[in-house]
Amino acid sequence: MLEVKNISKKFKKKDENGKDIFFYADKDISFEAKDGEIIGLLGPNGAGKTTLLRIIASIMKPTEGEIFFDKKRIEEHEIEIKKNISFLSGNTKLYKDITCVELLKMCAAYYDMDKKIVEKRIQEVIDRFDMNSFKNQRIGTLSTGQTQRVGVARCVLHNPHYYILDEATSGLDIISSQVILDFIKEEKEKGKCIIYSTHYMEEAENICDKVVLLNKGKIIACGTPKEIEKDTATSNLRDAFFHLIGGLKNELDEY
Questions:
Q1: Collapsing DSSP states into helix, strand and coil, what is residue 67?
Q2: Does residue 222 have a pLDDT over 50?
Q3: Distance CA 77, CA 68 (A)
C-alpha cells in the first residue's frame, strides 16, 4: 500500500520586477493507494500532477509531508523501495542511437536482475508490447507509439510492485493506447499498486478504481468516479470537474 501524507512542494520564481516570490505546486496532498487498485490523478496542465508523482517516486523531495510504501518511509528504505517502483514520465528521453533490446539489457543491469532470467524476461516484455517487428531497430527511428511502448517496457522489465505512470498514453494512437491500458489492467489483477496520471477524464473513468481530482495544486475531490459524479450531480468526471471549479468562465477569469 502507498500512503501520501500531507505533501506540499514550494518553489521560488521571479516576478516582473525581479523579486523572489514563492508558490506551491502542491499543497497538503493526502491519499492512499491499496494493492490491486488503480488510483487516477486527474487535472489540467499545471494542476500539480507531475510534481506530485516525482515526489512519490523519490525523484524530488517534498517541502512538507511524508510518503510511505507498506508502512516504510521512503527516506529510510530508499534503495529497497526504488527497486519495486516503476516510474514513467511523458517527457523521459530514451537513447536514440541504441536498439530496443540494447536498452532493455542496460535497464536489466541497472536493476541488478538475475542474469539467468534476463533474456527470457526481455523477450516476455517484447512479446507483451508487440515489439518484435522493431526490437532491433535504433530507438531514434521509431514512431511515437513504438517509442512509448519501449518506454513502458523499460519501466516494467524488473516486475515492480508499484507503478507511477505520468500521462502514459498522451499523444498516442488508439492501438498503442489500448496496448498500454490493457497492460495496466492486467497488472492491477496481479495485485499491483498503480498511480495513473492523466488529463483524459474519459480514460480515467474507464480504468481507475478511485480518482484524485487536482486543481492548482490542491485536491478538490477524491473518491470513485461514481461517488464524485453523485456528489456533484453530474454524469461524468469532466462535468464534475467544471462543477467543482465553478465552471470554465470562473477558471479563465482568474488568469
A1: strand
A2: yes
A3: 10
Number of alpha carbons in the 13 Å side-chain half-sphere of residue 176:
19
Q: CB of 6 within 8 A of CB of 64?
A: yes
Identify whether the C-beta of residue 223 lies closer than 8 Å to the C-beta of residue 191: no
Alpha carbon distance 246, 189 (integer Å): 37
- For residue range 131-165, list pLDDT tens digits in order: 999 999 999 999 888 888 898 899 889 999 999 99
Side chain identity at 80, as an amino acid letter? E
DSSP structural state of residue 93: P
Q: Tens digit of pLDDT for each residue in 5-25? A: 999 999 988 888 888 889 999
Biggest CA-to-CA distance, the chain: 60
Q: Which of 181, 236, 218, 223 is nearest to 46 (CA)?
A: 218
Axis crossing angle, helix 115-128 with helix 100-110, rounded to the nearest 10? 130
Length of the chain: 255
Would the pTM count as exceeding 0.90? no
